[in-house]
Design a protein that fits this description.
365 residues; Zincin-like
């Protein structure tokens, strides 16, 4: 929550100091050049799209760099001091670059589709925008676990052992359509441990962090000896492979297996109680209501100029009758909603905590 308010104060100061209008003005000639057709006519949708992409990219880069001090302090000072951080600075920077690259790939189709709908479907655009974003959310639900997360972490099937048999038996008892149990290399970044389940339809998976297996099962004598040798040579990772491999763990540790099963049962509780479905539904309702409210704000053609943007740099008039830059209107409207968003965030934290308690009760029952 503190981080959110910190970001809000940074963003508010950024706007008060007039940086966004200056960035927009600097990008406008490039966008205008790209958006002109062969006859020299400026396409209003393309101009707004190119401006939105360039503007968003610059603001994202500024936000990332501005957030670095707090992130670095949290990662390499606070977590490091408590023994949680296992990531190098190079690995952290690599993650930052990957996240930015994913955003650059995903943003253009979503942004262009949304702008085209708002410009082309009249005053009831919020209905079609809601449908479009619903499809977008559902696509992301598929892409994130199956495509995006493997970019950042390595997933491998859990080898045949007793804990895998226990998880399969647990899933069968609660009619969870388990297809695979996987292990993710969480130890490459942190000593924090976790487990989760995900999937679409009958394609369901349970994922265990390797740190979870290590903390609850313990390491075999051979693995402990290897760790001692690594530390003597001044390194945390062996030169010829990962820090943790599946054969390192003591799968005969009955107490540890029961603890892991309790954690997995908690995650299956979220599935059985449909918490993810409720969360998605709440998010989609919020999206629909936001765009419905935004449809009223579009009637104020001077919204962008009131925030310091020059009218001649907003593109040309468009047949829809909307302001010259729908993207800017949406950006400013979203910023004005931030205080309401933070109140809703507090309410969502309460709902999430209640869901966690319910999943705990499910795992015990």
């Amino acid at each position: 929550m503190f981080t959110s308010w910190n970001d809000f104060v940074f963003e508010l100061a950024f706007w008060i100091l007039g940086f966004p209008p200056a960035i927009w003005a600097y990008m406008a000639p490039t966008s205008e050049k790209w958006a002109k057709g062969e006859d020299g006519t400026l396409d209003p949708i393309l101009f707004d799209f190119y401006q939105a992409m360039l503007f968003s990219l610059v603001l994202t880069l500024i936000s990332i760099v501005g957030d670095w001090p707090c992130s670095l302090i949290k990662k390499f000072m606070i977590e490091e001091s408590h023994g949680f951080n296992k990531q190098t600075l190079g690995g952290w920077l690599k993650d930052q670059f990957k996240a930015l690259l994913v955003q650059i790939i995903l943003l253009p189709p979503l942004l262009y589709g949304l702008l085209w709908i708002i410009y082309s479907t009249g005053d009831n655009f919020y209905v079609y925008a809601g449908i479009f974003l619903t499809v977008g959310v559902l696509v992301l639900v598929i892409l994130i676990p199956f495509v995006i997360m493997p970019i950042f972490n390595k997933f491998e099937p859990l080898e045949e052992n007793q804990i895998k048999k226990d998880i399969e038996a647990l899933a069968s008892d609660v009619n969870y359509p388990l297809q695979k149990v996987e292990v993710v290399d969480g130890s490459q970044r942190s000593s924090h441990s976790n487990a989760y389940q995900y999937g679409i339809g009958k394609i369901k998976k349970v994922v265990l962090f390797d740190t979870l297996l290590e903390q609850h099962l313990g390491l075999s004598p051979e693995a402990r000896e290897r760790r001692i040798v690594q530390k003597k040579h001044g390194g945390e990772k062996p030169a010829d492979g990962p820090q943790v491999i599946q054969s390192d763990f003591k799968y005969e540790n009955n107490a540890g297996r029961m603890q892991i099963l309790g954690i997995v049962a908690h995650e299956l509780g979220h599935w059985a109680l449909m918490h993810f479905l409720y969360a998605i539904t709440i998010s989609l309702v919020q999206i629909y209501l936001t765009f419905y409210a935004f449809s009223f704000s579009l009637k104020y053609a001077n919204m962008a100029t009131n925030f310091g943007f020059a009218e001649q740099e907003l593109g040309v008039a468009n047949p829809s009758g909307h302001p010259r830059s729908v993207f800017l209107s949406l950006t400013i409207f979203s910023m004005l909603l931030k205080p309401i968003d933070y109140v809703l965030e507090i309410l969502m934290v309460y709902v999430i905590r209640q869901n966690e308690f319910a999943a705990d009760k499910y795992s015990v029952d």
